[in-house]
Design brief:
GO terms for molecular function: L-glutamate gamma-semialdehyde dehydrogenase activity. By secondary structure, the chain is an alpha/beta fold. It has 15 helices and 23 strands. Helix 4 runs antiparallel to helix 6, helix 5 packs across helix 6 and helix 5 packs antiparallel against helix 8. The radius of gyration is 27 Å and the shape is globular. The chain binds nicotinamide-adenine-dinucleotide and 5-oxo-L-norvaline. 5-oxo-L-norvaline binds next to loops.
């Protein structure tokens, strides 16, 4: 109706003030295509293995000094900390410093100021920087990213390669690509000669706090640099136990031209950081990945302080899981055994997606048990630099004690039987052997709580009770991160995928519950596993955008009276 009125008022010659045309252009980088970074093989004699060996030597023989970086200032406080190798904890690889609350305030001011200028840098320029960074990560810095991740976070070669090389590079490239694709949408402009509607993507005024976990180098890079890509100013608080790999990412992004102050590298004591950012009126968002208790605390603090903020802070939190493998009597046993071993024990069960509980039908149990135990017995748990190691130590003393606590609990209870592993030794490194426990009670705490270590608990069920197992597993835990079913019976699989719909943000059929790939399985859990914003998917970038609709009118408004009023 309103547009019709405007047409009725159209005049042939426009006053000068309305003749300058559109002010808005949303440009796109042409011919930008992306694909997943290939996983390199590291076979004996390969170029990549030689480069990795030399980077490992260099990282191991040095204690790198990692400053706090705020704007272009490197800062060292008196609160000195060290990052050690989890598999050999007397060896330091980095010296770093905790920021005081005053320094965190300074970083807030710096990021908030930097955001204003950075947001004016055209998106296409930012995208080009990201593509350049991904290329450097794939080439010049690949070995360094992997070596710092292996030694600092206790990953064996393949686990580092899929994280600190491939997933990191994929996040950087795909997010740049998804940001570029945003330009494909333009709102409807019903009559382009009379007016134009546009949507442009701004950052959020204020700052974003990126708080990252220890277990994926790639996640640190994604949490901090995706908000930056979208025009935000960021404070990145890395995990203490992922310092060196995360600092490597920070330096690469500076090298490709991300200006000082856009992302500030702020290691700090968790509560100091959380308390300071949630007390700032400029808090525009928290991009968090880690445990439920930490995210709950941040959420509560934001709620309590809501009236002080200039924006409603965006809260993204990807948290823990109690991921399951549900095996049907029609399943292929080899897939079950190999998939479950990989999911439960790769990276010592410290992937948020790791299988921690498995439900096996009695009819398959003898074969599955034999398979699991014989494969488990061959797994070498050792030094990350030994190519024969399947996995290595857990991350630190706190994790070691927590995991050992669950194993001790199982050992002392008559509801549980430890059928494989169970040995823990922290004399040189924080080593926990891959442990398989059979539990007679599907509602026991060991079937419900996140352990975040190499502990797989199995409930063996009567084949006829599969429906009640589905019911139990759906409600046993507050989490809904990943889950898998193994079945060759199509009718069962079709029904299970519906009944289990709400139990996992990432669901697998005849595949293990770990190993999502950017652009292939966008990642995130529901319920208390997180806000499910699907990192690695096309919509993630939008969570860090502050879009502005602009309507420009090229014809004058000549009357206030509508035609029908004139009779
Ligand atoms: N859903 C996912 O995508 C995903 C991915 C990786 C890890 N995780 C989860 O992360 C957890 C393991 O990681 P973690 O041990 O590093 O988690 P964590 O919660 O202990 O720590 C995460 C980050 O929060 C910081 N922190 C701690 N207290 C804080 C506070 N009061 N305020 C602000 N920051 C604070 C830590 O220093 C760290 O940087 C597991 O629960 C795992 O399932 C989830
Ligand atoms: N993307 C990884 C999990 C990341 C969490 O730790 C996977 O799917 O295994």
């Amino acid at each position: 109706m309103y547009n019709l009125c405007r047409q009725a008022q159209r005049v042939k010659s426009l006053p000068n003030s309305l003749q300058f045309g559109s002010l808005v252009s949303v440009e796109k980088v042409p011919n930008l295509s992306v694909k997943n970074e290939p996983i390199l093989g590291y076979l004996p004699g390969s170029k990549e293995l030689k480069e990795l060996e030399s980077a490992l030597k260099k990282t191991a023989s040095n204690v790198e000094d990692v400053p706090i970086v705020i704007g272009d200032e490197e800062i060292r406080t008196k609160n000195v900390k060290y990052q050690v190798m989890p598999h050999n904890h007397s060896k330091k690889i980095a010296q770093y410093y905790y920021a005081t609350p005053d320094l965190i305030q300074k970083a807030i001011k710096t990021a908030t100021e930097a955001q204003k200028k950075w947001d004016r840098v055209p998106m296409s320029e930012r995208i080009n920087m990201w593509m350049k960074a991904a290329d450097l990560m794939a080439t010049k810095y690949r070995a360094q990213l992997n070596a710092t991740t292996m030694l600092g976070q206790a990953k064996v070669v393949i686990q580092a390669e899929i994280d600190s090389a491939c997933e990191l590079i994929d996040f950087v490239r795909f997010n740049a690509h998804f940001a570029n694709e945003l330009a494909d949408y333009s709102p409807i402009s019903p009559n382009p000669k009379e007016g134009k509607n546009s949507l442009r993507y701004r950052g959020i005024d204020g700052f974003i706090a990126a708080v990252s976990p220890f277990n994926f180098t790639a996640i640190g890079g994604n949490l901090s640099y995706t908000p930056a890509l979208m025009g935000n100013g960021v404070l990145w608080k890395p995990s203490d136990t992922a310092l060196l790999s995360n600092y490597t990412i920070f330096k690469i992004m500076r090298e490709v031209g991300v200006p000082a102050g856009v992302v500030n590298f702020v290691p700090a004591l968790g509560p100091d950081f959380g308390d300071t950012i949630t007390n700032s009126e400029h808090l525009a968002g928290i991009n968090f990945t880690g445990s439920v208790p930490t995210f709950s605390r941040l959420w509560r603090q934001v709620g309590e302080k809501l009236r002080i903020y200039r924006n409603f802070p965006r809260l993204i939190g990807e948290c823990g899981g109690k991921n399951y493998h549900l095996v049907h009597s029609s399943a292929d046993v080899t897939s079950v055994v190999n998939g479950t071993i990989r999911s439960a024990f790769e990276y010592s069960g410290q992937k948020c997606s790791a299988c921690s509980r498995a439900y096996i039908p009695k009819s398959l149990w003898p074969k599955v048990k034999e398979g699991l135990l014989s494969v488990r017995d061959q797994l070498l748990v050792g030094d990350v630099t030994d190519v024969k190691s399947f996995t290595s130590a857990v991350i630190d003393k706190v994790a070691f004690d927590r995991i050992k606590g669950y194993i001790d609990y199982a050992r002392s209870s008559n509801k549980h039987e430890i059928i494989g592993g169970g040995e823990c030794d922290d004399s040189q490194g924080y080593f926990v052997q891959p442990t398989i426990i059979v539990c007679k009670d599907p509602s026991d705490k060991i079937m419900k709580e996140e352990i975040f270590g190499p502990v797989l608990t199995i409930y063996v069920y009567e084949d006829k009770d599969v429906e009640s197992v589905i019911e139990n597993l759906s409600s046993a835990t507050p989490y809904a991160l990943t889950g898998a079913i193994f079945a060759q019976d199509e009718k069962f699989a079709r029904s299970a995928i519906e009944k289990l719909k709400m139990t996992a943000g990432n669901f697998y059929v005849n595949d293990k519950s770990t190993g999502s790939v950017v652009g292939q399985q966008p990642f995130g859990g529901a319920r208390m596993s997180g806000t499910n914003d699907k990192a690695g998917g096309p919509h993630y970038v939008l969570r860090w955008a502050n879009p502005q609709s602009i309507k420009e009118t090229f014809v004058p408004l000549t009357d206030v009276i509508y035609p029908y009023m004139k009779g």
